[in-house]
Amino acid sequence: MSMGTGAKARFDAIREVNSRTPRRFDPPRDDHGKRLRISDYYGVNTFDIHKMREKLPKDAYTKLLSTIQTGKKLDPEIANTVAHAIKEWALSRGVTHFCHWFQPQTGSTAEKHDAFLTIDEHNRPFEKFSDSQLIQSEPDASSFPSGGMRTTFEARGYTAWDPSSPVFIMEHRNGKTLCIPSVFISYHGDALDEKTALLRSMETLSQRACNLLHLIGEKGVKRVIPTLGIEQEYFLVDRAFYSLRPDLIMTGRTLVGGQPPKGQQLEDHYFGSIPARVQAFMSEMEQELYKLGVPVKTRHNEVAPSQFETAPIFEEANIATDHNQLVMEILRKVAARHNFSVLLHEKPYAGVNGSGKHNNWSLMTAASGPDIDGENLLDPGTTPHQNLRFLLILASVLRGVHHNSGMLRASVASSGNDHRLGANEAPPAIISMFLGDLLSRILNQIETGTIDKSVDAAVLKLGISKLPEVMRDNTDRNRTSPFAFTGNKFEFRAVGSSASTAFPTTLVNAAVADGIEYVTEVLARKFNEKKELETAILDTVRQIIQETKAIRFEGNNYSEEWVKEAEKRGLPNLRKTPEALAELLTERSLKTLARLGIFTEAEVISRFHVRTERYIKNILIEVDTLRSMVDTQILPAGYAYQGMLSGSVASAKAAGVPAPQFEVLKRISTLIHSLQGKRSDLDVALQKTDAAATEEEKARILSGDITTFMGEIRTICDELESLTADDYWPLPKYRELLFLSVS
Ligand code: ADP
Ligand code: MG
């Protein structure tokens, strides 16, 4: 290496990034070239309820609607009519191919395209799309992770249309594909994907919630739906920098990188004005999502530099889940057009905040029509009855989360999320619930039966009818809690930013269904004791409050005191993925999920294996990437600078002048030496990993020794970066990645 050329590519990248301008793109226009409103083109690429009504005969429309609303099987008689309508609509929009779009256990989506084109017996081409092509498909599925399901059962996997999620058209630069949201199941009906169990959990939750509501006299409620609004955090980095970082390319996070003098401590990025280039990116991203009928609503700068967030209006949990997959996909696609790479990893950069998905979750009674306008069961409401109902549902969530905190922790476990949950960063690995000051006080008073002045005495007597007004203004914020009540919904903040939300939501649904079942039994017993409605409910709520105290925590979840306090309360603190995943296999998790009809035991075990395997692969990829960066970029930069300094020291000596740079040379040499040493230690530890008898053992070594060695290697690399002349350093530095990318 000649002097100082190590950084040439980096300097070129800086120049390239500094010359960027916001990308111009075409907003949708009408035939006269006038810009359309969002509401004019919203959902043009989905075959939604409005299009069904428009394109289908009345009878078929009514039947399809009822299929969607009741979750029942599709009437085979109408399938052909529906397939025909969808085909005509798709062809009229220039679509050439279709695919079953499904969610294998990889965290992302899968699709295999088929052309509509068919050739008839006279060798004439025509477009065909039959009812069976709409309803079912058999992809060659042997390469999707099944966690052993397919050796235990049958190798074949099927995808089946999920009519509750609208069919949509995905546009590419040079074509369009019709995507049919589907579930992916084995020949025997085992869930091979993320969606099947989510749909099952919604069904179970609805049944259990209806049972409870019927018991308190709401006989008319036929269905209850979990609602979900997912706040998605992400980082943007310029493509030119990204391309020079093997770690970002291979692992989604930086494995090395010294801290810049300024990080997020000034808090000047949060809610700051959105940089022009990012604004252009966001607008185009939102435009694509609107066409797909994804109701993205808010956008803003997040806490860390170059970190952002987008959040939609909430929807039914299964649709919100599909839509979040689309959000992640469109984020990636549109970012590339703007010369950005989007980083969905939970912790792309050390020293600044990581990214999560905040899952805002609630329960809603189903309305009669196609719209989401039922009653929110976690809204305290305005009448005494609504207040009592609210308390029962709240008690159910308390019981559900308290009793099933292990599987909830497991639901968010991943190698990426370990950097958030295990570290002092939102939120911790200990699952607890935050209710806010006023609600806590109300629960305390229900528990003791005494009323203090802070809550009006009348509130309790009237069945807490005053709750809503007071509540709304009083829901305080606790950003450190993994499961926080925010006025009329819970926010599960422990979900990782890159994760599919299906599994965590399935397990939240399962936990709450379990809680509701328990509360319903307790309440039924009170009724058997001939207690009146109000007394029976308040007695039930009191009992649950007493039983679930340990799960409630209003303080700072990051503090050391909480770690100690949680331990006293017997709440598990599962910092790393291997120990968290083990919670899936406890007797309680297996029994509960099987009883609720959400996962068979074999399905849970397969999920455990898939997730353990993914954890192992992710860490091994990180290790390999780090080794190659050390060997081919970091050590060579160190050698080159060391060589330059040696020459300079020799020249100084030859000239008979002092050579103080000798001190730097010594330090650089020491660092190179210890880096080489640690690099060998890592190799030895890896051999131990290879020799591990089981996957679990392997995962434990990776989460222990290997992770520790990687951290130590990083520390040395970062010091080397801080001492090496800037024009010898090949990797874009944190100050560039974080502060130049989006300016
Ligand atoms: P925050 O309360 O975090 O400031 P918002 O009020 O904007 O933010 O809500 C955050 C997310 O919660 C949005 O996606 C929103 O649609 C969603 N949300 C609001 N009400 C509900 C609900 N009843 N069920 C599920 N999600 C909801
Ligand atoms: Mg929020």
Description:
It is built from 27 helices and 18 strands. Helices cover 50% and strands 13% of the residues. The chain has 743 residues and is an alpha+beta fold. The model has no long low-confidence stretch (mean pLDDT 91). The longest helix has 54 residues, at 601-654. Among the domains are: 8-13 and 615-739, Four Helix Bundle (Hemerythrin (Met), subunit A) (Up-down Bundle), CATH 1.20.120.1560; 42-193, Ubiquitin-like (UB roll) (Roll). Magnesium ion (MG) binds at residues 231, 358, 491.
Number of strands: 18
Give the C-level CATH assignment of the domain at 42-193. Answer: Alpha Beta
Strand proportion, as a percent range, falls in: 5-15%
Which class best fits the helix and strand makeup? alpha+beta
The CATH architecture of the domain at 42-193 is Roll
Q: In DSSP terms, counting alpha (H) and pi (I) runs of 4 or more, how many helices?
A: 27
Bound molecule kinds, no repeats:
adenosine-5'-diphosphate, magnesium ion
- In round numbers, the mean pLDDT is 91
Q: Over the alpha carbons, how many angstroms does the gyration radius reach?
A: 28 Å
Question: Main β-sheet, in a few words?
Answer: 9 strands, mixed
Globally, the shape reads globular
At the third CATH level, what is the topology name of the domain at 42-193?
Answer: Ubiquitin-like (UB roll)
**Helix percent band:** 40-55%
Unreliable stretches, pLDDT < 50, 5 or more residues? none
Rounded to the nearest angstrom, the distance between the terminal CA atoms is: 32 Å
**What is the CATH homologous superfamily assignment of the domain at 42-193?**
Glutamine synthetase, N-terminal domain
